Amino acid sequence: MRIGLVGYGKGGRFFHAPLISSLPGATFVGVVTRSAERRRQLASDHPHVEAFDTLEQLVAAGVDAVVVSTPLDSRPAIVMQAIELGVAVVSDKPFAHDAEQAEAMVLAAERRQVPLSVYQNRRWDSDFLTVRKLLDSGALGQVLRFESSVERYSPTSVGKGNGGGFLRDLGSHLVDQALQLFGPVVRVYAELEYRQPGQVFDNGFFMALSHAGGVVSHLSGNCLQNAARPRFRVNGTEGCYTVEGLDGQEAQALAGLSPATEGERWGTEEHRRWGWFEHGTERERVASERGCWITFYQHLRNALQSAGPLPVASRDALATTRILDAARQSAERGEVVVLPAPVGHE
């Protein structure tokens, strides 16, 4: 399988290139970037990977898929260009500025019969995989409330709009995870935080999602929080699971590591970072599953070889975008937004 990458900023360099280059049976063909600095970084990081000026040049070199990891403002147009060129494409997240833009990409890919996926890599976070295992085993009983939060203190992130604000950027992960666990959402309430006067993009959010199946998800994120909430708190009739901190794959990637360099150490959480199961006076550690972002690319490879579904369906990303749109509407109007009931839940 031959994979190309468009963009070599933080996302392309640290969250895609190390995985593509580590994927067995795959060739990292090249990167589209005109920046002299990023071309120097690419030459240092991956000496045998070529730099290209345009997507057309990359496709002409022969690729089975392209990954688009440019800022949100330019990304949808490049995704559409890849679709028109007839090459399978992975869009970084957030998928789009709004649901209208997201739907246009989905329909274009379906019309051209071009595989389109979205890089929701946090479906393969260690903590999320552990939550999923607990739910599948029934250890928590009937889940009543799902709390998911990513909070950090990063003043340099305030007002940054590359991802459309913290709600659009980080929220796309949290909403996608909630949908994966508990299904369609019928009501959305949200609040947005703006620290500086005239700030266009939010630096914090809170969302309450009512799922058609009865679970309520509370999702929050903030880049100016000194005391972070638990990453997950999942309350069920038979107990509660909590875990602190963030999955370690991000830190490993930013340190220049990869699945190829780390082997079995990649994605493994040290036991002091494991979460807790609590029920009454009972309290015990829960061993964390191993995180595995590279699974996204393994599923992509298999799908393009007709051996399974895409790692993330484009219509999943469209559903997430619609909820993010509803959250912004809720925050702006100060009201609960009611979404159409899914088929079978009317």
Model description:
This protein is α/β, with parallel strands linked by helices and 346 residues long. It folds into 2 domains: 118 residues, NAD(P)-binding Rossmann-like Domain (Rossmann fold, 3-Layer(aba) Sandwich), CATH 3.40.50.720; 188 residues, Dihydrodipicolinate Reductase, domain 2, CATH 3.30.360. Helices cover 36% and strands 23% of the residues. The chain has 11 helices and 15 strands. Strands 14-13-12-11-7-10-9-8-15 form a 9-stranded mixed beta sheet. The protein has a 6-stranded parallel beta sheet with strand order 3-2-1-4-5-6, sandwiched between helices.
Largest sheet: 9 strands, mixed
Q: Considering the protein shown, what is the CATH homologous superfamily of the largest domain?
A: Dihydrodipicolinate Reductase, domain 2
CATH structural class of the largest domain: Alpha Beta
Helix segment count? 11
Helical percentage = 25-40%
Mean pLDDT: 95
Based on Cα principal axes, name the global outline.
globular
The assigned structural class equals: alpha/beta
What's the order of the H and E elements?
A: EHEHEHEHEHEHEHEEEEEHHEEHHE
User: How many domains comprise the coordinates?
Assistant: 2
CA(first)-CA(last) distance = 44 Å
- The CATH topology label of the largest domain is Dihydrodipicolinate Reductase, domain 2
Unreliable stretches covering 5 or more consecutive residues: none
- The Rg value, from CA coordinates, equals 20 Å
Strand neighbour order, sheet with most strands: 14-13-12-11-7-10-9-8-15
CATH architecture tag of the largest domain: 2-Layer Sandwich
